[in-house]
Amino acid sequence: MNQPPHDAARESALLEGCERALEQARRGPLGANPRVGAALLSPSGELLVTGFHRGARTPHAEADALLAARERGLDVHGATCIVTLEPCAHAGRTPSCARTLVDAGIGRVLYAVRDPHDVAANGSAILRSAGIDTRLWSDALPASVGGGLTARATELNRRWFQATRESRPFVTAKIAHTLDGYVAAVDGTNAWITGEDARVEGHALRSTVDAIAVGTGTARADDPALTARDAHGRLGARQPRRVVIGESPLEPHSWLAKAAQGPEHARPLLYRTHDIRGVLENLRADHGVEHLLIEGGPRLISAALKLDLVDDLWIHQAPTMLGAGTPSVAGLGIGTLKNRLDFDIVPESLHVSGSDLLFHAIPRARQQTPTKGE
Asked: Where in the chain is the domain with CATH 3.40.140.10?
């Protein structure tokens, strides 16, 4: 139910709070955690502080804003918390945001989108049971603006929502290729197409994910260790789980084959199948993988793209050309331009690393082709 009309000043304050929360959310990193922003308003509508979620193992947006208020000595009792995603109910790596808001004495909570996660959802119920006025933006704001603001908050995390609904990890695919789109020369040589700086950034990415996957073709051709190392080649404290997908056997003396004989916690997960969707569901359900990095090869990345299972791309592009060789993406079965896969480049991700260009790209929502009679 929509609230009664507000006076102009109050409505303006709420709109400003929503805009600031969205602005903060855009500062959050892409990945397996939603991009969330928050703003705290005083009971009179004055903007107090803002906050955002900086990624795994960091305070959520609401807690970040409360910390900022505490550092400035601000009184938040009775304040309004405006946040782009429903405050979480689950206490895990971080405390429950809903409980944190209750304990802080927040008087009102307005959130843009319900949390679809099966564990974290229903924070709004905790807030309401504590007597806190808790509403969706679309219920608290005039329809003329509430819907548009909600749509913007939803779009920020469109791929995260999709992965969560499908009960699978958030999937990042990394491609390191030449200007003309090749990952190896005609003779199969590929070390190294990109420079040292790009490889350091690639290892930094590995350190942030729960698991790294390659196809058996890449495992056999490249013999990757799939470890996360620092700029000096030292193993990081946190290592992702290694995953190999495909029906071909590993080379018996390869890094991954040797690791399969090691300690159970460090053994690669070997999936003798081409059912990528089934693998993803198993990784999340049985191994707690929330963020998977696919590093190759071209066939595995292509298969994931065709099934719309890639949530973002990391592109490392070297300033060189081969003219022929192994393309970074195998056939997608696209025969006409209108069926192409489109992506949006994240502007703030564009940068030069050494001599290479690095950027993120997010798949655009796919248009469903209507059948006759629709």
From this structure: 8-157
CATH class name, domain 8-157? alpha beta
Residue 20: other Cβ atoms inside 10 A? 19
CB-based burial, 334-346: b 16+ in 10 Å, e otherwise: eeeeeeeeeeeee
Task: Decide if pLDDT at 105 tops 80.
Answer: yes
CA distances (Å), origin 80, targets 9, 14, 27, 70:
15, 9, 21, 15
Spell out the long-range contacts of 218-223 with Cβ–Cβ below 8 A and sequence spacing 24 or more: 218/295, 218/296, 218/297, 218/300, 219/244, 219/246, 219/250, 219/251, 219/254, 219/256, 220/248, 220/250, 220/251, 220/254, 221/188, 221/297, 222/190, 222/296, 223/251, 223/254, 223/255, 223/256
pTM (predicted TM-score): 0.77
Active-site residue among 19, 46, 62, 251?
A: 62
Q: Is 62 a catalytic residue?
A: yes
DSSP state of 337: G
Alpha-carbon distance of 192 to 209, in angstroms, equals 23
Task: Report the alpha-carbon distance of residue 129 to residue 123 in Å, rounded.
Answer: 10
Which of the residue ranges 24-33, 35-44, 82-91, 326-335 would you say has the lowest mean pLDDT?
24-33
Decide yes or no: CATH 3.40.630.30 for domain 166-363.
Answer: no
Residue range(s) occupied by CATH 3.40.430.10 in the chain: 166-363
